[in-house]
Automatic annotation (TrEMBL):
Annotated organism of origin: Pseudoalteromonas aurantia 208
Stated name of the protein: DUF4488 domain-containing protein
Domain of life, per lineage: Bacteria
Length: 132
C-alpha cells in the first residue's frame, strides 16, 4: 500500500484588472485656455477646429484655424485613473517632438476635460466632445 501525503498549497493569483479606456474614439475640440507670456488666451470652435483620435495605444490630431491648416501630430500615450500622458513622436510642431506631457483628465458624459500644468502653473486647459 502506498500512502500519499497531500498538503495544502497556497495559490497566489496575480490578476490584472482591465478597465475600459474611456478615451478610445474620435474627439472634437470644444474650447481651450492657453498660458502665454501676456496671460491666458482662449480658443473656441468653430474658429479653431481640431479632431483627436485615440486608439488603444496611440493618439493623433489635426487642427485648423478658420479653415486653414495649423497643426498635426501624434504618438503613443499612457493612461491611468488621473493622467493621460502623450508621448509626441511626430508632427509639425518641432519643439513638441520627443516630449511627454502628462495631462490630468476627467470624463463627464461625452466631454473630456484635460489640463496641463508645468512647475505648478497652468499651461493649457481643453474640453473635447466625443463624436464616436
Amino acid at each position: 500500500m502506498i500512502r500519499l501525503k497531500l498538503g495544502l498549497a497556497m495559490v497566489v493569483l496575480n490578476i490584472n484588472v482591465v478597465i475600459a479606456n474611456p478615451l478610445i474614439g474620435t474627439w472634437q475640440f470644444v474650447k481651450g485656455e492657453y498660458a502665454t507670456d501676456k496671460g491666458l488666451v482662449t480658443a473656441r470652435a468653430p474658429e479653431l477646429s481640431s479632431v483627436k483620435i485615440i486608439s488603444k495605444s496611440h493618439f493623433s490630431y489635426i487642427t485648423q484655424n478658420n479653415g486653414k491648416f495649423l497643426y498635426a501630430g501624434g504618438g503613443s500615450y499612457q493612461l491611468d485613473n488621473t493622467h493621460f500622458t502623450e508621448h509626441v513622436e511626430y508632427g509639425n510642431v518641432n519643439n513638441l517632438i520627443g516630449k511627454s506631457m502628462a495631462f490630468t483628465y476627467q470624463i463627464e458624459q461625452d466631454l473630456w476635460h484635460h489640463t496641463l500644468h508645468k512647475n505648478g502653473k497652468l499651461v493649457e486647459r481643453e474640453v473635447w466632445q466625443k463624436i464616436n
